[in-house]
Structures are given as C-alpha cells and as structure tokens.
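Entry for the shared binder. Reason: the reviewer on the internal report wants the predicted structure included alongside the sequence.
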Amino acid sequence: MRTLSSRMTSKGQVTIPAEIRAELGLKPRDSVQFTREGDRIVIRPMESAILKSYGSVRSVDGPVDFRKLREEFEQGVADEVMSTMD
C-alpha cells in the first residue's frame, strides 16, 4: 500500500494528491464524503442527488425531440428577424 501525504492549512484545508483525485475521478468543485470506519476515515466522491435520481420521473408529454425543438426555435427567430426587415 502506497502512502501519500498532504499538509493542512490554518483553515483546515488539505489538498487531495493528484493520484488519488484521478483514482476517485474527482474534478474541481466535486463534493467528497468522509466516513468513519473504525479507526479509519474513508474519503469517497459524493454522489449527486440529481444524477442519482436521473430517469426516475417520466415526462408527462413523453420524450422531447431536442433537434425538432431547436429547429422550431431557430425558425421562430428567423421569422422574427424577417418581420422586422419588412
């Protein structure tokens, strides 16, 4: 087992070594969870509540066709521009 270390700042902050961030898949602004397991503290990426519940609620109107929605929006913008040119 490899040991890595980091120094705590006066504000109680520590830098998670890059090797561990990469292994855990942590990116800037991600949240982490600390859990006490006996005499150890375990750090894990915190699961997003939004991502955790993704897909659990169905749309009332059915699936959205984003290409069609974008085309309709762009056509609306084009029509508005053309009406101001008349």
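Summary line for the report: Strands lie at 32-37, 40-45.
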